[in-house]
From TrEMBL:
UniProt organism field: Lacibacterium aquatile
One GO term of the biological process aspect: methylation
Protein name: Ribosomal protein L11 methyltransferase
Keyword Ribosomal protein in annotation: yes
A GO-annotated cellular component: ribosome
């Protein structure tokens, strides 16, 4: 009998709670996945851990979110995984997908990238952003839309995860991109992905919080800023975003649910930004804002 290849924390929550539970479990896990059980209904979340997670830590993380939403404790369980490479299996179940002019594929893909598409090699890994989530898709559609009108010279990706959006900008615009993330593992994965996609000379990935990273401050202002994080951090960073965005520049904001649009827009309109376009898909939103020329 083989040893367990890790552990899985599993729970069922509502779609509006997925992000919050994901953030709470993130420090305990190396990868988190969420699947819609029934369209418009509940979602199954799975958090994968290398070692057996502390039961009290899991309980506390789930309780904090349940209390925040004023709901009862959702049923959850912790179970050992069978002895196999679940990450490799996850990669195999990640089919190539076309989105606008982008073609997202894993390293197991043996076909050819369509001639008219920009290829993005991203494996299912320990950083968020394989192109499957609606927020990532909304951002890619927004980058595609902006890129068809003009080529931004300086671009920034705040909360870069796997680096998929930074790489999309580098390949679309052939201009330098700075990316940052608060999670060291995401920074490691993103740097690795830039090498695999041959854009490591264009994309610089830094570890740090928001706009405080010295390299980000040094290169401002930016023609395009992408921030695929969460609604409340977006609101808190609105003033910093304006300070780093060039007059006439654009910002793509995502990681928010449809009902959070008004809150995020209000925070940015107070900074003189206006809504240009929005993409809505399966309850999630991506907003394209513009800073008026001073």
């Amino acid at each position: 009998m083989g040893h367990s290849s890790g552990y899985k924390i599993e729970l069922v929550v509502r779609q509006s709670q997925v992000n919050a539970f994901g953030e709470a479990l993130d420090p305990l896990a190396v990868a988190i996945a969420a699947f819609e059980i029934v369209p418009g209904g509940e979602w199954r979340m799975e958090a994968y851990c290398v070692d057996e997670p502390d039961a009290e830590a899991v309980k506390d993380a789930i309780r904090v979110v349940a209390d925040a939403f004023n709901i009862g404790m959702p049923a959850y369980h912790i179970a050992p995984l069978p002895p196999k490479d679940w990450l490799a299996e996850n990669r195999q179940s990640f089919p190539p997908q076309g989105l606008g002019r982008y073609f997202i594929y894993g390293s197991h893909f043996e076909g050819k990238i369509p001639a008219s598409r920009i290829g993005l090699l991203v494996d299912a890994a320990t950083a968020f952003g394989s192109g499957e989530h609606e927020t990532t898709r909304g951002c890619l559609q927004s980058i595609d839309m902006i890129g068809r009108r003009k080529k931004p010279k300086r671009t920034l990706d705040v909360g870069s995860g796997s680096g998929i959006l930074a790489m999309a900008m580098a390949k679309s615009f052939r201009r330098p991109v700075i990316a940052s993330d608060l999670d060291r593992e995401s920074v490691r994965v993103a740097r690795e992905n830039t090498v695999l996609n041959r854009v490591n000379k264009l994309v610089r990935v830094e570890y740090g919080a928001g706009y405080r990273v010295p390299a980000i401050r040094a290169k401002r202002p930016y023609d395009l800023i992408v921030a695929n994080i969460l609604a409340r951090p977006l609101c808190m960073l609105a003033k910093d975003l304006k300070a780093h965005l060039a007059p006439g520049g654009h910002a793509i904001l995502s990681g928010l649910l449809n009902h959070q649009e008004a809150m995020v827009l209000a925070a940015h309109r107070a900074q003189g930004l206006r809504l240009v376009h929005k993409f809505q898909r399966k309850g999630w939103s991506a907003l394209v804002l513009a800073r008026t020329r001073d």
